[in-house]
Amino acid sequence: MIAELRERIENYSYLGPKGTFTEAALALAPEAAGKPWRAVNNVPEAVQDVVEGRSVGAMIAIENSIEGGVTASQDALASTPGLRIRGEYVVPIRFCLAVRPGTKLEEVTTVAAHPVAYGQCRRWLAEHLPAHSHLPASSNVASAEQLFEAGVDAAITPPTITEHLPVELIASDLQDNHTAQTRFVLVGMNQQVPEPTGRDKTSIIVELPEDRPGALLEMLEQISTRGINMTMITSRPVPDKPGNYRFVVDLDGHLHDARVADALLGIRRFCPKLIFLGSYPRVGVVLKQADLAHSDERFAAARAWLASLEAEDAQDDRASSPSV
């Protein structure tokens, strides 16, 4: 019983089956090394594993350098109270065309592919298979599994697919952009914020309180006036409020940085529906130092100055009060 409970707690969930880019991202997470991994069918299932305690963490794709934000992940983050990002990982994206052994390119009329993968291979497909039909798949490995179903001739897959299925690769580097990469985040229910590293990112989701001219600008000014670099902003519709949107925002810096904390306070005043997703080390970028006016030292000096004025005011009040 104890062993079963320990295994359940230490599980890490990811979009399966084995061989997906999500699994490759999970392999980059030090805390998941040597722990049981749980392959699931989609992002909501991975997140639900964490919420219900079947897994301690879940790796989910959050943004692709070509297709942009991954909407299923962004919506899951927005709708799951208490979920926090613990780290980010970047995986280079390479696609191949897999077929049943012996199939020739000229015989291909239908191609199974995950919609995001399909969108990244449009140019190659238009040139080499202009008359093909697309069959959506739930993952880049599930597309190859469809090869063994009737009516599927080829699949867009990772190069490693031959390690998992008896298929043949007849074309490689299908992706339109050869610098394409996908950013993944490891999420969990642990509320503790990692200590600052000097190369951190803070992620939030903001729902504007009302739809009016200048509302978004007011929110963004809370960021820009504090000298914070915003590295991503995407909009997602609020399901129960047609015409309203929430914004997924990434900021350079850490919650413990005075300028970031002050910006979040400013945003919270304008937008009570502010979700803090976490502050965590970002991948592969050396951040520029904040301008001197926005440094922690200047914030501390300003707070000390204000405290001195309040102390002087309190002293004057005591001096002017009549003695009894």
Automatic annotation (TrEMBL):
Family annotation (PROSITE patterns): ACT, PREPHENATE_DEHYDR_3
ACT domain boundaries: 204-285
Ranges of residues in domain Prephenate dehydratase: 11-189
Keywords recorded for this protein, A-Z: Amino-acid biosynthesis, Aromatic amino acid biosynthesis, Lyase, Phenylalanine biosynthesis
InterPro entries named in the record: ACT-like_dom_sf, ACT_dom, Chor_mutase/pphenate_deHydtase, Preph_deHydtase
Pathway named in the protein's UniProt entry: Amino-acid biosynthesis; L-phenylalanine biosynthesis; phenylpyruvate from prephenate: step 1/1
Top-rank lineage group of the source organism: Bacteria
Protein's name according to its UniProt entry: Prephenate dehydratase
Organism of provenance: Pseudoclavibacter albus
Lineage of the species this protein comes from: Bacteria, Bacillati, Actinomycetota, Actinomycetes, Micrococcales
This protein's encoding gene: pheA
